[in-house]
Amino acid sequence: KNQVEQSPQSLIILEGKNCTLQCNYTVSPFSNLRWYKQDTGRGPVSLTIMTFSENTKSNGRYTATLDADTKQSSLHITASQLSDSASYICVVSADNAGNMLTFGGGTRLMVKP
Amino acid sequence: DAGVTQSPTHLIKTRGQQVTLRCSPKSGHDTVSWYQQALGQGPQFIFQYYEEEERQRGNFPDRFSGHQFPNYSSELNVNALLLGDSALYLCASGFGTGLYEQYFGPGTRLTVT
């Protein structure tokens, strides 16, 4: 069964600090991995999308890494801002599933002043 | 250019009733996917429509059905509502069925009492 596990479930950091969120997956055969940011009650917004051949991708203060051998990904947020407070969701697509996405449960990040 | 739009924003229904949710994809997009997101969890894939046909389906009962119109907009119908159907229903659009970026709408919050 395709699964995506994220850790930690929740995280509180001070404004200006860095943090790293983790994602482990068992989706096979792997096609691509995405990180989304979701504000409460809103739809997810894409941050990065990586295929098998990519091991890092940046989007401003967000940097995602992918290790397809260990089936792990991380999302690093640099110099956090209050507006970074949201849920961050790791999403994986299987190669034989078109664009059917398997979502992780998300990490709820709270940035405090 | 409008992004993905969904209607209504909020909806309250009684057990056993039927509900129809609507989605208009982002301009230029022809594929629509529907997701159910229970409170505090990641979205679960319901189904995907392309060229007015259901192309892929997640693990949801037949009570969940859909339709895509020639203008690419889509409807999600849920019959015989259960309390457990209470969730945020998200619509995402993209172009084609290969690897593509999915843009999410703001969602419809359904409450079943």
Task: Describe the structure in your own words.
- The complex is a heterodimer of chains A (113) and B (113).
- Chain A is mostly beta strands and 113 residues long.
- Chain A starts with a strand and ends with a strand.
- The relative contact order of chain A is 0.34.
- The model of chain A has no long low-confidence stretch (mean pLDDT 92).
- With 113 residues, chain B is an all-beta fold.
- Chain B is 0% helix and 50% strand.
- Chain B contains no helices and eleven strands.
- In chain B, strands 2, 4, 5, 6, 9, 10 and 11 form a seven-stranded mixed β-sheet that branches. In chain B, strands 1-3-8-7 form a four-stranded antiparallel β-sheet, with no helix packed on it.
- In chain B, strand 7 and strand 8 form a beta hairpin.
- The N and C termini of chain B lie far apart (37 Å).
- At the A-B interface, strand 4, strand 5, strand 9 and strand 10 of A face strand 4, strand 5, strand 9 and strand 10 of B.
Summed up, the helix count of chain B is: 0
Kindly state the mean pLDDT of chain B as a whole number? Answer: 92
Helix vs. strand class of chain A: mainly beta
Low-confidence runs of chain A: none
Residue share in helix of chain A: under 10%
Number of strands of chain B: 11
Beta percentage of chain B is over 45%
User: What share of residues of chain B is helical?
Assistant: under 10%
Shape, per Cα inertia axes of chain B:
globular
Ends of chain B: how far apart? 37 Å
Q: Rg of chain A, please?
A: 13 Å
